[in-house]
Write a structure and sequence with these properties.
Elements (H helix, E strand, L loop, with lengths): L27 H16 L6 H28 L4 H6 L3 E5 H5 L8 E7 L5 H14 L4 E7 L6 E6 L2 E9 L22 H18 L4 H17 L12 H14 L5 H14 L11 E2 L39 H22 L5 H4 L5 H4 L2 E8 L3 H25 L4 E5 L12 E10 L14 H11 L10 E8 L22 H13 L29 H6 L33 H4 L30 E3 L2 E3 L17 H11 L19 H13 L19 E2 L8 E2 L7 E2 L39
Parallel strand pairs: 2-5
Antiparallel strand pairs: 1-2, 3-4, 4-5, 6-12, 7-9, 7-10, 8-9, 10-15, 11-12, 13-14
Family: Belongs to the poly(A) polymerase family.
EC number: 2.7.7.19
GO molecular function, one term: RNA binding
């Protein structure tokens, strides 16, 4: 069981594809701050107790013995001779946070079972081994997921959570001293085995490529904790997961090999605030390899060109570990990097402390409008399966909204789910919504994402293991109507009594931006009690340009001040969500004072020369050739931020060989066109009528009724939850049908809701 032993450091050799930025060591002040950081991390409970550590080791030892007994049993059952039965072996490896040494109390242990060629995944691993585990009293919550992209078996062993993968090698006998870091281990293996082995191979390679393992571990613990507090820790939600943060931290350790953790945290924010995505982050050169496996290479693989924040794994076959990142989640993370950089600078001037850096992000105070996605099932097992499927598809909803609104409506997915204790077998997800900032608000501009939501629900409901009772509901809910079960203890918190870093910065921004509040088309102020005008500066990124170059994207006509959706053909009159009437109708977030264009990564004028650190092929590898020698800043000049900035620029100055064309659409959105074409064809075969909206004297949102052929549409005056259901798929005879040659029906967006049949107005 285990992985090859590694020392505490890899000093004496240059690590990484460039020279370090600085070789400077710590000052006495840095030593003090590093101790403060370690004490802080201990006080917040990031380290497990000695008793728990021993328990984990015992569980892993027991699991290793179980798989050895399992492989001997199946070898005998398959008729192998007694000598082969006695030699039959399987071995447990660990990876992820446990292998990296940064796991906390109660964390899962990521494990890999490596078995011989005659031990199959389907029959033996998910069959016989699953049966053995299910009969053991120490095992609970056993949940196999054989159809996952990386097949996995989840369970608890003596209360310790285990995620177990399986890799079937081409060997008849698995040696006890097997080294899975060798590329030859991948020969004659299937894709699922390659993916399963990847976690262990990447984890071990990371530990080999950092100059000081202990400093790396402390820094990574810090950054993982920070990311969770700031709501940007989740691969499935479109942010970054554990392996992504590990790679980003490892690269900073390479660039500052003699720095202590407090210095590395500060440099982390400084470097990635200046990083121009999609320049890839790489710990080593990308090897072509001799096995013909596909590697990340946007010059050869068109789909790789869509990746907005490439973070490349160091083990063959190298791949982008952060392909889930969208333009919205990238913008959110770059905002957070900027915030972290500002706080670290303030800490150096004794104007801030670690509490400010780790201040929790108040997600449910940050926006005026949210999407609430509720899912339910009939029992725990069904909910677990349904939940896993829906979570894997939530990213599509973000991508669809971005694409269908031409990136004008921005989404912020919450990385976790929430349980309502009053409703069994149910959970909820939330997304914050706001208008793209820095763009003038046109009079009468509207957003209607009903059809977008319906597309998403359509894709979710294609689940092959769907069972009766598995349901999904998507609603628009305003901040003041967020359900109480999302808050700790089920109680909505009052306004914070003391000023926080975020509230102080927001107040400063509010004051500085107040002078421009009378400009036409802008929404005034921070209204509706938004944490003292709490804001995030949203940076544009080159993803806008990329998405607009996609095959199915069409430009909104400049003459159209209002964009409208609903259903193609326009069966209903959408209710207006105007910039100067935010509270009454809901969707528009105030235009903020800061200009987005000041973010380095947001430059739309970035040329193809700025898009990668890869610039040549040598000896079968993609290698980085530094354009300038003497990259690192000397110890004497390490305090110069200008010199450091120049060094960071040099790291990213190598071009891709190929241009950045985008001939294809991202794979996860390819189902859109087929679905929308179906909607259009249905819409062209029906006729419908509409009624003019009617509003009450109190200025409540308008009520829009149908003619009885379909559900009515209503935006409730109370401003509470609004169900987003499909609009009528009918077309008005007075509106001409769009030409067939259009690549995609023009989409107009507006937030409305469809009431149930009982809510129809007569």
């Amino acid at each position: 069981m285990g992985s090859p032993g590694l020392g505490t450091g890899n000093s004496g050799q240059r690590l990484g594809i460039t020279e370090p930025i600085s070789l400077g060591g710590p000052t006495e002040y840095d030593v003090i701050k590093a101790r403060e950081l370690e004490k802080y991390l201990q006080n917040v409970g990031l380290y497990e107790s000695q008793e728990e550590a021993v328990s984990r080791e015992e569980v892993l030892g027991r699991l290793d013995q179980i798989v050895k007994n399992w492989v001997k049993a199946i070898s005998r059952a398959k008729g192998l001779n007694e000598q082969l039965v006695q030699e039959a072996n399987a071995k447990i490896f660990t990876f992820g946070s446990y292998r990296l040494g940064v796991h906390g109390p109660g964390a899962d242990i990521d494990t890999l079972c490596v078995g011989p060629r005659h031990a199959t995944r389907e029959e033996d691993f998910f069959g016989e081994l699953h049966k053995m585990l299910s009969e053991m009293p120490e095992v609970s919550e056993l949940h196999p997921v054989p159809d996952a992209h990386v097949p996995i078996m989840k369970f608890k062993f003596k209360g310790v959570s285990i995620d177990l993968l399986y890799a079937k090698l081409s060997l008849w006998v698995i040696p006890e001293d097997l080294d899975i870091s060798q590329d030859s281990i991948l020969q004659n293996t299937d894709d699922q085995t390659v993916r399963s082995l990847n976690g262990c191979r990447v984890t071990d390679q990371i530990l080999r490529l950092v100059p000081n393992i202990q400093n790396f571990r402390t820094t990574l613990r810090c950054m993982r904790f920070w990311a969770k507090r700031r709501g940007v820790y989740s691969n499935v939600a479109g942010f970054l997961g554990g392996i992504n943060w590990a790679l980003l931290v490892a690269r900073i350790c390479q660039l500052y090999p003699n720095a202590l953790p407090n210095m590395l945290v500060s440099r982390f924010f400084r470097v990635y605030t200046q990083w121009r995505w999609p320049n890839p982050v790489m710990l080593c050169a990308i090897k072509e390899g001799s096995l013909g496996l596909q590697i990340w290479d946007p010059r050869k693989n068109p789909k790789d060109r869509y990746h907005l924040m490439p973070i490349i794994t160091p083990a063959y076959p190298s791949m982008n570990s952060s392909y889930n990142v969208s333009s919205s989640t990238l913008r959110i993370m770059t905002d957070e990097f900027q915030r972290g950089s500002e706080i670290c600078e303030a800490m150096e001037a004794n104007k801030a402390d670690w509490d400010a850096l780790f201040e929790a992000y108040a997600f449910f105070e940050a926006y005026k409008n949210y999407l609430q996605i509720d899912i339910s099932a009939e029992n725990d097992d069904d909910l677990r399966n349904w939940k896993g499927w829906v979570e894997s598809r939530l990213r599509q909803l973000t991508l669809k909204i971005e694409r269908h609104t031409y990136n004008m409506l921005q989404c912020h997915p919450h990385p976790g789910d929430f349980q309502d204790n009053s409703r069994p077998f149910h959970c909820s997800y939330f997304m914050g919504l706001q208008r793209k900032q820095g763009v003038p608000v046109n009079e009468g501009e509207q957003f209607d994402i009903r059809l977008t939501v319906e597309e998403f629900k359509h894709s979710v409901n294609t689940y092959t293991l769907w069972k009766p009772g598995m349901e999904i509901r998507v609603s628009h809910v305003k901040r003041r109507s967020i359900p109480s079960f999302v808050f700790p203890g089920g109680v909505r918190p009052s306004r914070p009594s003391k000023a926080t870093w975020d509230s102080r910065r927001a107040s400063d921004a509010k004051v500085s931006g107040h002078a421009g509040s009378d400009k036409s088309g802008e929404v005034k102020g921070a209204a509706d009690g938004q944490v003292d005008g709490k804001k995030r500066k949203r940076a544009d990124d080159n993803a806008d340009t990329q998405l607009k170059n996609s095959k199915y994207i069409t430009a909104v006509p400049s003459s159209s001040a209002e964009v409208q959706v609903g259903s193609p053909g326009g069966t209903v009159t959408p209710c207006s969500l105007k910039g100067d009437n935010v509270d009454a109708t809901g969707l528009v977030e105030p235009t903020r004072g800061k200009d987005e264009s000041n973010m380095t990564n947001g430059s739309k004028n970035s040329s193809t020369e700025e898009l990668s650190s890869l610039n040549s092929e040598v000896d079968g590898s993609l290698r980085y050739i530094p354009p300038h020698k003497g990259l690192h800043v000397t110890t004497d000049a390490s305090s110069s931020k200008e010199a450091e900035k120049l060094a960071i620029e040099q790291i990213m100055s190598g071009p891709y060989v190929s241009d950045q064309a985008f001939p294809e659409e991202p794979e996860e959105l390819e189902d859109d066109l087929e679905f929308r074409n179906q909607v259009v064809s249905v819409g062209n075969t029906n006729n419908g009528s509409q009624q003019a909206p009617v509003s009450d004297a109190a200025g409540a949102a308008p009520i829009i009724s149908s003619n009885g052929a379909g559900p009515s549409i209503s935006l409730h005056a109370s401003g509470s939850i609004e169900e987003l259901e499909p609009a009528e798929l009918t077309a008005m005879t007075s509106i001409p049908v769009a030409p067939v040659v259009q690549k995609k029906p023009l989409i107009r967006l507006n937030f409305t809701s469809l009431g149930k049949a009982s809510e129809k107005s007569g």
